[in-house]
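Support request, priority: normal
Reporter: lab tech (M.K.)
Component: structure prediction queue

Hi team, I submitted a job for Uracil-DNA glycosylase-like domain-containing protein from marine metagenome yesterday, and the status page still shows it as pending. I've pasted the exact input below so you can check whether something in the sequence is tripping the parser. The sequence length should be 116 residues. Please let me know if I need to resubmit or if it's stuck on your end.
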Amino acid sequence: MVQNKISIIKGGSELTAFYHLIKNCKDCVHSNSNIDFGVGNENANLVFIPEAKCKGDAGHNNSLIGEAGQLFDKILSAIKLSREDVYISNILKYTPSKNSDSHRPDIKICESHLQK
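Reply from support: The job had stalled in the queue. We restarted it manually and it finished. Here are the results:
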């Protein structure tokens, strides 16, 4: 079963500490935005890190929905995995207002958190 972000946070793990780090981050102008933390199996051996949610993903707990999500599911299936086997966490923890390069500086900031 794929865990949603609420159950991961209640699960009490390193992800909980990471969530609080991200939630309290003040390194960019989006620090007060809704956090797109991540979804999936918190014990997964495989983590996928897309750049950011697309506008079409907004309002969903999941990244990689729509056509991109269908392709992602096919790729997982081809290697005998499903979303239940992986964890997905975007580099950007907010949904950009448009698909452009204007959020490039934020990628550097958010990327540094992932490297921790």
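Strands lie at 39-40, 46-48, 86-88. The mean pLDDT is 75. Let us know if anything else looks off. Ticket resolved.
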